[in-house]
């Protein structure tokens, strides 16, 4: 009886396996857009007197662009990257994720490439997650986030019409 049930389930699932394409079309952030988002993030913080680093990751969590302002501490690069990693992993604002998931925050902070802190935002183009921007160095994650948000606002038209 078990073998018959297993065979029925196997045959019933074959169309689902056959329907999956061999090559998946994905949207990926380009170097130029990533560079412009990082630059706009650093410039937004500069206007407020903060020396920061901004890191843009692609949708897979790989560094596309890393930018450190002249006087930003060297550690801000790593923190910005790890904040962006959290935004890519969760697909949400890193600060909102932090507030919602205090139950697993300590464990996630031990995973290489992630830190549960405010200051990173996902980057979406035409509704698809294409990456994240993390900022570090301002006095408080909410100020880092504001710089990232200003950069994304500046790039809004490019992101809306991305094919």
Which spans have pLDDT < 50 for at least 5 consecutive residues? none
Relative strand content: 15-25%
Strand count, sense and barrel status of the largest sheet are:
4 strands, antiparallel
Task: Spell out the CATH superfamily.
Answer: Haem-degrading domain
Number of domains: 1
The structure class reads alpha+beta
Strand neighbour order, sheet with most strands: 2-1-4-3
| Approximate helicity band | 40-55%
Tell me what you see in this structure.
Helix 2 (31-47) packs across helix 6. Helices cover 49% and strands 17% of the residues. It has a four-stranded antiparallel beta sheet. It is an alpha+beta fold. A hairpin with a 2-residue loop joins strand 3 and strand 4 (128-136). It contains seven helices and four strands. The chain has a single domain, classed as 2-Layer Sandwich (Beta-Lactamase).
List the helices and strands and how they pair.
Elements lengths: L1 H17 L12 H17 L5 E6 L4 E6 L6 H16 L3 H7 L4 H4 L11 E6 L2 E9 L4 H14 L1 H5 L3
Antiparallel strand pairs: 1-2, 1-4, 3-4
Helix pairs in contact: 2-6
Spell out the key features of this protein.
Beta-Lactamase; alpha+beta; 7 helices
Short description:
By secondary structure, this protein is an alpha+beta fold.
